[in-house]
């Protein structure tokens, strides 16, 4: 019974397959069974206990800290909040609760009129020492308080964040709740209670998360798919044949098809399969669909490449091999064309039908989808060299063409071609998509007014004009904020989401001329939005859209009060800070990236603009001529690319961006070339390298040492360069931020010199000052009280919507108040973005701190991050290229340095009596001494060899003379004896002498023939040094010689030739070699047939097979002579080619010896073996091919 041997591949295959099945079964079954909320509640209870223990330590630390010291904790975890109060006044805090009012002291009711949306009392005022599960904004906390004297600490542990993207159920990740459970208050009827110190605080319920059905355990499914693919590849690697290939491809096709269908069900919950990222038709309905389809192609080509040897062997065994090879080559060429066409189609489709950027020189536009696309395209392009390598054996058999696709030169060329294609496609199609996008921006920029807003204003203006509460409040000084809240909450709640609304009140007795002029100008400028409307459309000094409404209210005793209602899009502040960070965009507005500038011309006059480019104020003749001459709508001038969009005859919009430098394209090309070269090199790892045996050579060791030194040097230089640029950019950024905060601080202090304290900032005048400074510096400003509480902001909705906490950053507060820093710069997170915030104290003329100002830094004039990344990529790319060049240069230098030693070794290996060569080395170094010693040795050896050769030649001639004398003497002796016998018989008168005469004459003639043969043998030997080599057609010569012998009935000849087999050699001598070998075979067979007949055995038919074929040794032909004769005994193998040895009764023993001598003079060789097919002798002549 035979047992199959199980190897490591079998274990790996079985392990991955089992793991795939387990993961798939688990991912599909989990979620279908009801969850055990009790067990989950116990787990969360333990986690809550550990987190609260940490929180209690920080509470104790805050309680015992001094009253005048900052009790904020820099090491407080982000899911915990601590507020410390001194006499019910917030003194320090770490992290923040999402509440606007953190004042736990009692409040009066009046503020409710100014901010009706706020509570009368703070939600923190109700916190007790017992941990309670409460809701603050979008978050749920477990809060508690502790008191020590006049110090009180309110602390909270975040439990749930309903807006969190980190987990589908929003539960704090530190609690390690499973995704199919939700946390709810104790008031819920279902679920299991989570306890803290044996007291229930909230419940855990089994919840169905929206979109979870299709994404449940999707990670496990992906791992299961990956394990199955790996198991399939191991299964194929175990036995690489066609049958197993078809089986593996069928399995992979089924799995990938199932993945494609599964991806269809995930389009609403996974961005990878969502059509919002990319979609183009039914097949390519998502980026995930493209990747899955591409994987099928990659696996098909890879598996076919792995089994290429078995496929080709089967082709060579077919009846019509040449026709099958043509079909195979055609199929491979079609596959290469198909893969490239597929790459081209999906590359074009993804660029034109998605928002995915593939222009590597635009780093800010790249995202994870860009990486996935490039990964997919790289995998597909790598299949083309594999297919080309599969084509090479067919081309070799059909045309004799040989080429290694994975040689260093071919890899370099292939990588360069792929890189050029990728850069050209991404650049060309990316620019086309950019033109389409710019056209959309231009069309939207051409529309100035918001019709939907004007309809809303028209609907509400009469209600505002007749509002008696607003009329009453307008007579009260500093009632602007109360009126504003009344207008927003009662009439414009939806408008306020996208527009800034400002209220200005002017009493009847206003005497200031500038104020009167301002009112007159603003009420007469612009155009009414409709006939009889109180609102007018106009543009502000920054050429942005603006709606102004004028309302007059009469109050007995105070007369007529004028209210100006200003409505402006939030996007008007998109460059100021918060709007840019949060992506404000009013309906109909255009958010153009910061690197673009635009200008609008009406009647050839500049009417509005944005950005850093210096546009001309009018369209002069030169600019008009340039615009008229362009046919593509693109003008490149002054280092910028300008997109020209005509609106009317004299109206146009120019949108401009900095021109992409050629250097960026070159760096991208080099970077992609390195990536492709690296990937192609990875494909060669499984191939055998003939130079592996040289890894222990000194040359290889020196190369390795030099490469390591180069690598370390280049890595050090690259690191230092990148760090230098990073630190320089960081220093420049810090300097820019310091300049900005200093400017803001100076401007604000110059306008607030006479402000006594922060309460004065509640006036309308203070609000105007803040807006003026904000507009001048193009930056949002937030003022905090000296206690760190938000007071006034140019973007108050950021705080109203709880996008930012009502308290300033605790680190900034500590540095400014307790450490007396002049300013503080720190990173903070707002929304999903992280940016720098600038803080500085504001002093009045008396040097008293009246407020703390804050401004987000969003200046994009210098993109330090992109510059640093681009510089790093450039440096790494250039250094990698230098490393590769250095590798070739050092290898060449080392090879040149070791060339004399290598040459010396080669010549010593090839040294023979007739082949001693000197080494030419003209340099004076350590190697020169060794070369001189070697040349001296060669000189001495040549002289010694010459003397030895002369002595051997003399000895050989003496031996030859004795041999010739012996060969001549042998036949002369019987001749002499026979003739003497005949003479005696004649003298004696013996009548029988006449009868013996014929017999003796025949014997004499036979001996004379032997003398002639001996003379011919020596004549042939003499001619070896005189005949010139000529071109010989081996195939034709062998056929001619076989025809001369193929006339016997009892011997059959078979010949397998090779057309076009040409050699250089002495034709008569080579003919003699072939004749001798064929004649030996014929004589051996005839002798064997005669012996068989004498023994009465069965007569057999002799067979002689002569083959001409390419030798296994490069550059040689093999001429094989086989017969079914008795062959040569093992004892005679060693003496077969020595002189005087023969197995024939009438042989001279010189034939094979002379044959070998002839062949050696032609750099050929001859050797004997036993014929496996015919069981007789087999002589193989290995003759060098003619060199072209």
Explain this structure to me?
With 1188 residues, the protein is α+β, with helices and mostly antiparallel strands. Among the domains are: 36-105 and 117-211, no CATH class; 239-399, no CATH class; 448-570, Beta-Lactamase; 755-862, 2-Layer Sandwich (Beta-Lactamase), CATH 3.30.450; 916-1023, no CATH class; 1027-1184, Heat Shock Protein 90 (2-Layer Sandwich), CATH 3.30.565. Helix content is 50%, strand content 17%. The chain contains 29 helices and 30 strands. The strands form seven sheets. A five-stranded antiparallel beta sheet has the order 2-1-5-4-3, covered by helices on one side. A hairpin with a 6-residue loop joins strand 29 and strand 30 (1177-1184). The longest helix is centred in the last third of the chain and has 62 residues, at 926-987. The protein is elongated and about 190 Å long. The two termini are 58 Å apart. Mean pLDDT is 82; it is low at 107-112 and 209-214.
Summary keywords:
1188 residues; alpha+beta; Beta-Lactamase; five-stranded antiparallel sheet; 50% helix; 17% strand
Topology:
Layout: H1 8-29, H2 37-64, E1 80-86, E2 89-94, H3 111-114, E3 132-136, E4 139-148, E5 151-161, E6 181-184, E7 192-196, E8 199-206, H4 212-215, H5 218-238, H6 242-265, H7 287-306, H8 308-316, H9 321-352, H10 368-399, H11 408-445, H12 451-465, H13 468-473, H14 480-490, H15 495-498, E9 499-506, H16 513-524, E10 527-528, E11 535-539, E12 545-555, E13 559-569, H17 578-582, E14 597-602, E15 605-610, H18 621-629, E16 634-637, E17 640-646, E18 652-658, H19 662-683, H20 698-751, H21 764-777, E19 782-784, E20 790-793, H22 797-800, H23 810-818, E21 824-830, E22 833-843, E23 849-857, H24 864-910, H25 926-987, H26 993-1023, E24 1030-1033, H27 1034-1045, E25 1051-1056, E26 1062-1065, H28 1067-1094, E27 1102-1110, E28 1116-1123, H29 1151-1161, E29 1165-1170, E30 1177-1184
Parallel strand pairs: 25-27
Antiparallel strand pairs: 1-2, 1-5, 3-4, 4-5, 6-8, 7-8, 9-13, 10-11, 11-12, 12-13, 14-15, 14-18, 16-17, 17-18, 19-20, 19-23, 21-22, 22-23, 24-26, 27-28, 28-30, 29-30
Helix pairs in contact: 1-5, 5-6, 6-7, 7-10, 9-10, 9-11, 11-19, 19-24, 20-21, 20-24, 25-26, 27-28, 28-29
């Amino acid at each position: 019974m035979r047992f199959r041997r199980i190897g490591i591949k079998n274990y790996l295959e079985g392990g991955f397959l089992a793991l795939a099945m387990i993961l798939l079964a688990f991912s599909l079954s989990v979620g279908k069974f009801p969850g055990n909320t009790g067990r989950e509640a116990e787990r969360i209870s333990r986690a809550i206990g550990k987190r609260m223990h940490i929180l209690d330590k920080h509470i104790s630390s805050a309680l015992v800290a001094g009253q005048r010291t900052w009790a904020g904790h820099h090491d407080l975890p982000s899911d915990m909040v601590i507020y410390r109060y001194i006499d019910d006044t917030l003194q320090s805090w770490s992290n923040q609760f999402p509440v606007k009012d953190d004042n736990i002291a009692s409040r009066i009711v009046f503020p409710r009129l100014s901010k009706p949306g706020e509570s009368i009392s703070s939600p923190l005022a109700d916190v007790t020492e017992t941990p309670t599960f409460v809701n603050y904004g979008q978050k749920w906390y477990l809060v508690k308080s502790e008191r020590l004297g006049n110090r009180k600490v309110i602390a909270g542990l975040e439990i749930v964040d309903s807006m969190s993207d980190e987990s589908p159920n929003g539960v704090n990740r530190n609690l390690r709740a499973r995704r199919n459970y939700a946390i709810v208050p104790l008031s819920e009827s279902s679920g299991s209670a989570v306890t803290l110190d044996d007291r229930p605080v909230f419940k855990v319920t089994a919840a169905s998360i929206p979109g979870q059905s299709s994404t449940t355990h999707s990670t496990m499914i992906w791992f299961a798919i990956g394990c199955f693919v790996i198991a399939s590849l191991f299964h194929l690697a175990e036995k690489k044949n066609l049958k197993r290939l078809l089986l593996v491809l069928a399995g992979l096709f089924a799995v990938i098809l199932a993945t494609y269908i599964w991806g269809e069900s995930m389009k609403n919950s996974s961005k990878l399969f969502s059509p919002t990222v990319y979609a183009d038709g039914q097949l390519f309905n998502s980026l995930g669909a493209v990747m899955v389809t591409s994987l099928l192609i990659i696996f098909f080509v890879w598996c076919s490449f792995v089994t290429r040897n078995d496929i080709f062997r089967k082709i060579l065994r077919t009846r019509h091999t040449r026709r099958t090879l043509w079909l195979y080559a055609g199929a491979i060429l079609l596959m290469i064309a198909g893969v490239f066409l597929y790459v081209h189609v999906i590359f074009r489709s993804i660029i034109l039908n998605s928002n995915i950027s593939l222009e590597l020189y635009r780093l800010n536009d790249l995202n994870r989808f860009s990486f996935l696309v490039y990964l997919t395209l790289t995998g597909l392009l790598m299949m083309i060299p594999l297919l080309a390598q599969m084509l090479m054996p067919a081309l070799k058999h059909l045309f004799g063409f040989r080429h290694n696709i994975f040689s260093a030169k071919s890899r370099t060329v292939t990588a360069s071609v792929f890189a050029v294609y990728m850069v050209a496609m991404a650049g060309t199609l990316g620019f086309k998509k950019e033109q389409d996008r710019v056209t959309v921006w231009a069309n939207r920029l051409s529309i100035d007014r918001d019709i939907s807003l004007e309809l809303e204003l028209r609907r509400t203006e009469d209600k505002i004009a007749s509002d008696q509460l607003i009329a009453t409040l307008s007579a009260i000084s500093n009632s602007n904020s109360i009126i504003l809240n009344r207008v927003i909450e009662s009439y414009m709640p939806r408008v306020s989401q996208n527009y800034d609304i400002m209220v200005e009140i002017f009493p009847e007795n206003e005497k200031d001329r500038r104020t009167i002029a301002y009112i007159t100008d603003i009420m007469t400028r612009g155009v009414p939005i409709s006939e009889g409307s109180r609102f007018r459309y106009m543009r502000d000094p920054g050429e942005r859209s603006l709606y102004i409404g004028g309302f007059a209210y009469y109050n007995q005793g105070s007369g007529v009060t004028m209210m100006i209602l200003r409505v402006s899009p939030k996007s008007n502040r998109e460059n100021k800070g918060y709007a840019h960070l949060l992506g404000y965009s009013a309906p109909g507005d255009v958010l153009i990236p910061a690197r673009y500038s635009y200008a609008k011309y009406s009647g050839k006059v500049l009417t509005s603009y944005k950005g850093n480019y210096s546009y001309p104020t009018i369209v002069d003749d030169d600019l008009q001529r340039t615009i008229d001459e362009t046919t593509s709508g693109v003008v490149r001038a002054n280092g910028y690319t300008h997109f020209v969009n005509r609106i009317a005859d004299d109206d146009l919009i120019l949108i401009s961006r900095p021109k992409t430098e050629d250097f960026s394209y070159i760096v991208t090309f080099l970077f992609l070339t390195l990536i492709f070269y690296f990937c192609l090199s990875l494909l060669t790892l499984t191939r055998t390298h003939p130079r592996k045996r040289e890894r222990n050579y000194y040359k290889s060791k020196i190369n390795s040492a030099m490469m390591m030194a180069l690598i370390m040097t280049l890595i050090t230089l690259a690191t230092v360069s990148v760090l230098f640029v990073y630190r320089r950019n960081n220093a420049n950024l810090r300097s820019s931020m310091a300049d900005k905060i200093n400017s803001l601080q100076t401007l604000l202090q110059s306008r607030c010199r006479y402000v006594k304290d922060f309460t004065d900032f509640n006036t309308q005048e203070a609000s105007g000052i803040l807006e003026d400074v904000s507009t001048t510096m193009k930056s949002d400003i937030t003022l905090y009280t000296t206690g760190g509480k938000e007071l006034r902001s140019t973007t108050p909705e950021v705080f109203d919507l709880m996008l930012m906490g009502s308290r300033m950053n605790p680190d900034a507060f500590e540095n400014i108040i307790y450490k007396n820093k002049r300013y503080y710069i720190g990173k903070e997170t707002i929304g999903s973005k992280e940016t720098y915030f600038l803080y500085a104290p504001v002093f009045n003329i008396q040097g008293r701190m009246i407020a703390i100002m804050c401004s987000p830094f969003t200046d994009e004039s210098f993109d330090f991050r992109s510059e640093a990344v681009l510089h790093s990529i450039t440096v790494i790319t250039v250094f990698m290229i230098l490393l590769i060049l250095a590798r070739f240069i050092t290898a060449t230098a080392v090879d040149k340095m070791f060339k004399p030693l290598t040459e010396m070794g080669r010549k010593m290996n090839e040294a023979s009596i007739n082949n001693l060569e000197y080494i030419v080395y003209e340099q004076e170094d350590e190697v020169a001494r060794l070369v001189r010693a070697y040349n001296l040795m060669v000189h001495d050896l040549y002289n010694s060899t010459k003397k030895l050769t002369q002595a051997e030649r003399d000895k050989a001639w003496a031996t030859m003379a004795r041999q010739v004398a012996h060969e001549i003497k042998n036949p002369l002796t019987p001749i002499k004896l026979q003739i003497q016998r005949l003479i005696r018989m004649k003298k004696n008168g013996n009548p029988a002498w006449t009868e013996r005469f014929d017999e003796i004459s025949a014997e004499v003639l036979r001996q004379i023939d032997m003398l002639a043969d001996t003379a011919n043998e020596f004549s042939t030997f003499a001619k070896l040094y005189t005949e010139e080599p000529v071109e010989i057609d081996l195939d034709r010569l062998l056929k001619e010689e076989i025809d001369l012998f193929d006339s016997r009935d009892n011997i059959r000849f078979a010949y397998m030739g090779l057309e076009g087999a040409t050699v250089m050699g002495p034709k008569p001598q080579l003919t003699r070699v072939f004749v001798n070998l064929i004649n030996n075979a014929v004589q051996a067979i005839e002798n064997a047939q005669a012996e068989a007949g004498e023994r009465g055995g069965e007569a057999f038919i002799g067979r002689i097979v002569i083959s001409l074929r390419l030798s296994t040794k490069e550059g040689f032909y093999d001429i094989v002579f086989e017969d079914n004769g008795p062959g040569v005994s093992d004892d005679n193998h060693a003496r077969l080619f020595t002189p005087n040895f023969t197995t024939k009764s009438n042989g001279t023993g010189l034939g094979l010896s002379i044959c070998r001598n002839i062949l050696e003079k032609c750099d050929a060789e001859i050797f004997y073996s036993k014929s496996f097919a015919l069981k007789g002798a087999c002589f193989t002549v290995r003759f060098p091919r003619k060199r072209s």
